[in-house]
Design brief:
2 domains; two-stranded antiparallel ribbon; about 15% strand; binds zinc ion
Length: about 280
């Protein structure tokens, strides 16, 4: 998985995995192996998803909608889509690995007002934030019992915060809405009613995010033929830091234990926040 040098006439290529590794080590730049010019890792990574992820999140969502009802057949097309979803989740974990040092990065977020909430006109509203376990890839209430309040918080957000957070929120919520049906059907820990509740919460949140993402400049149009996911992710890489930092501060003030999530490290030296039940596996 390579991305081209930013200098137009240069044929140099950078390995995406090494860029991510160096970014994680706090290096903002890396020299080109051919022209030796130092280049911004963030800038280089802007071109990465096109190379590493031939399909966009939107496309994956559309394809997934068609196979969702036969998740148990892990053959042919379904298997291919499931492995793409796996990769999508791994990308999310890898891209936001710096932020995971301070606190969990996976959560669902939806307006408490539910269907009465108007995604077009709101200014400041109460939202429910639900933390997810990054091992089982399920929201904490799906593990602790749907009535459990562990890892469940009611917080107020304003539209401006949401706007800044949109690139990250869109990428994350999109990924979680693919992961949830897969995990709950594989693990069979979530019953049908609980699953429907979780799914409708995710889609409520998605509506709010989509409404905000749709206003202002349409990022995809500015970039012409460029894949919107590519751009959103690139923007996300730079914006996520502030967004997640603010969020971690908010959550820490409410609940320093983050709903009992335990920070562990996987074989790729990435931090994961998992339910204590799974902490022993690391
Ligand atoms: Zn070069």
């Amino acid at each position: 998985m390579m991305v081209p040098c930013l200098k137009e006439s240069c044929i140099g290529l950078f390995e995406v995995s090494k860029l991510i590794e160096n970014k994680r080590r706090g290096r903002p730049e890396q020299p080109c192996p051919v022209c030796n010019e130092w280049q911004s890792i963030d800038q280089l990574l802007l071109n990465a998803p096109a190379a590493t992820q031939p399909i966009s999140l939107d496309y994956l969502q559309k394809e997934f909608a068609q196979v969702k009802d036969r998740l148990d057949e892990v053959k042919g097309d379904t298997g291919r889509i499931l492995s793409q979803i796996d990769k999508q989740f791994a990308d999310l974990i890898q891209l936001y690995t710096d932020e995971a040092k301070e606190g969990p990065r996976l959560f669902s977020l939806f307006p408490l007002d539910g269907n009465k909430f108007n995604p077009q006109t709101w200014v400041r509203e109460k939202f429910r934030l639900v933390l997810w376990c990054e091992h089982s890839r399920l929201p904490l209430p799906a593990i602790n019992g749907m009535d459990s309040k562990q890892g469940v918080y009611d917080l107020e957000f304003d539209r401006d915060w949401f706007k800044r957070a949109v690139p990250f929120l869109k990428f994350m919520t999109g990924t979680l809405s693919l992961v949830l049906p897969v995990m709950s059907s594989t693990l069979k820990v979530v019953n049908d009613t609980a699953f429907k509740t979780l799914e409708s919460q995710l889609s409520l949140g998605k509506n709010v995010i989509d409404a905000i993402a749709g206003e202002g400049t349409k990022l995809g149009e500015v970039m012409g033929a460029a894949d919107t996911t590519t751009l959103e992710r690139g923007v996300g890489i730079r914006a996520e830091n502030a967004t997640l930092c603010e969020l971690h501060a908010l959550l820490k003030a409410k609940d320093p234990s983050f709903g009992g999530l335990v920070r562990v490290m996987n074989k790729r030296q990435e931090f994961l926040w998992v339910h204590e039940k799974f902490a022993g596996e690391y």
